[in-house]
Amino acid sequence: MFTFIDENGYKVVLRFDQGPFEVEPRHVLALVQHKGKWLCAVHKERGVEFPGGKQEEGETLLQAAVREVYEETQVHVKDIEWFAYYVVHTETPFCKAVFTAKVKDIESFVGEYETTGRLWLTIDELLHHPNLSFYMRDEGMKKMLEEVSHGEEKRND
């Protein structure tokens, strides 16, 4: 378990297991790496961030992650796996499930909805991008990137 205070002053608890949950996850986040770079969406208001969003009625968390990645970046994913979850202790606490995935197919980015495009960033570019959304700048994101990178190293041994 990793605990920190986000830039809005809320306590956040990050865990790298599958529960039990103090708050049931209803939001998702996807960490997708391809050819040494991380997939990011460019949100109109928040800035550069990993794709993610809210689970819709009748949808599993995994289905929500796949859908959100596609809606925000026009990238189809495969081999999606549970990675972590975190609870943000706002006035009404919420929980976000975090998945890792691999790229299946990349379509041309046409039009815009919540996002204006996608970026592929190296870890250094990601950590130092000038237009990161607030949650991409927090200690929890750095910890998740550290853990996912460590997991990749173990799999490549």
From TrEMBL:
PROSITE patterns assigned to the protein according to its UniProt record, in alphabetical order: NUDIX
Family matches, as InterPro entries: NUDIX_hydrolase-like_dom_sf, NUDIX_hydrolase_dom, Nudix_YtkD
Domain spans labelled Nudix hydrolase: 1-145
Family to which this protein belongs: Belongs to the Nudix hydrolase family.
Protein name as it appears in the record: NUDIX domain-containing protein
Organism: Metasolibacillus meyeri
